[in-house]
Design brief:
The protein is α+β, with helices and mostly antiparallel strands and about 180 residues long. The protein folds into two domains: about 60 residues; about 100 residues, no CATH class. Strand 3 and strand 4 form a beta hairpin. Helix 1 packs antiparallel against helix 2. Keywords: Membrane, Transmembrane, Transmembrane helix. InterPro entries: STM3941-like.
Length: about 180
């Protein structure tokens, strides 16, 4: 049996910086809406409750996103590693870590509002959801499972790669694993 060198896909610092700048801008817009309460001229959007709700939601959601991007900016580990043990995901706030090849039955690509995701199809998806101790991550995995058939949906937004090339590399590794060309070390 042969072994292959691991494939390391680095995090894209330029994509992370763009995400950080964008999320920081939305936090600033949320703060501006909260402080200024501008007149919009629409009865729905001029409602103070709607303005407060939208501004607070923007500050909280994009504040967490900015925190994530800032954290990933300092991350020295690769965003993804494909090796003989499996697929190691470190690409997002909902990164799962190691997914052994024995658990992976396939991969597909799904699109949501011009955003493409690599869906990792698993033998026991419920097991991955149940193993999550972080409530937000658990809810995210449950949402992904309900909508895409798998709890693991990986975006290439923070990776230095093309999503379809990544899919082909993973499919190649799955095929080698099934044929016995690769053994876990």
């Amino acid at each position: 049996m042969t072994t292959n060198a691991p494939i390391e896909i680095p995090l894209s610092k330029s994509k992370i910086i763009k995400g950080l700048l964008g999320s920081t801008a939305f936090v600033a817009i949320g703060l501006w809406l909260l402080i200024r309460q501008p007149h919009i001229g629409n009865p729905v959007f001029d409602n103070a409750l709607v303005k407060y709700g939208a501004s607070i939601a923007s500050i909280i959601f994009f504040g967490f996103a900015a925190f994530f991007f800032l954290k990933k900016l300092g991350d020295k580990k690769p965003g993804m590693i494909i090796n003989n043990d499996g697929l190691y995901d470190n690409s997002s706030a909902a990164a799962i870590g190691l997914i052994p090849w024995d658990d992976i039955i396939g991969v597909s690509v799904s699109s949501v509002m011009n955003q493409q995701f690599l869906i990792i199809c698993l033998k026991n998806p419920e097991q991955y959801i149940a193993a999550q101790t972080n409530l937000i991550k658990k809810k995210s995995f449950g949402f992904n499972y309900k909508n895409y058939g798998s709890p693991i949906a990986i975006s290439a937004n923070t990776l230095q790669c093309n999503l379809y090339e990544l899919k082909a590399q993973i499919e190649d590794k799955i095929a080698k694993q099934k044929s016995g060309e690769v053994s876990a070390e």
